[in-house]
Amino acid sequence: MLEITDEMRKTLDQLRDRIYGDLTALALMSKPGGRLQWYYASGSRSERYRRISFKVGHGIAGMAVRLGRTVTVSAMLSGSIRLRQECALMLAEQLHSAVAIPFSSTGGLPNGVLLLGNRDVRVFTDSDVAGATQVAEQLGQLCAHTLTL
Fold this sequence. Notes:
The chain is globular and about 40 Å long. It has a single domain (about 5-149), classed as Beta-Lactamase (2-Layer Sandwich). A 6-stranded antiparallel sheet has the order 3-2-1-6-5-4. Helix content is about 40%, strand content about 20%. It is of the alpha+beta class. The longest helix has 23 residues, at about 125-149. The protein is built from 5 helices and 6 strands. This is GAF domain-containing protein. It comes from Paenibacillus terrae (strain HPL-003).
């Protein structure tokens, strides 16, 4: 089980402010081959995210982990409606645009994901995604440290 630290919260809060997003969230797979669980969401409207888990390959976040690359969902992009409908967090938080960035806390295959979301239709800039990718790598290191304590 992952223990969310103040540094993780602060990192996600700062990222949300920097990209002018409505939500940033962190999910991690606690054991290999298991389900991913949302552990923290900055800007969430409720605590429902804590009860949401999902399989690798399911929804935008699960697809990012399966593919090992960034996945984007926006009403302006064709074919992304299904990924939005499969993501319980996007539905619960009424997000219309999102970017999911996978990361690894073990140095191997991705086992976590950082989600950026907006409740309006929006296209995240390359700069937003590049900055968030660095944050995802940082979160992977923080998760590795927390999991080993």
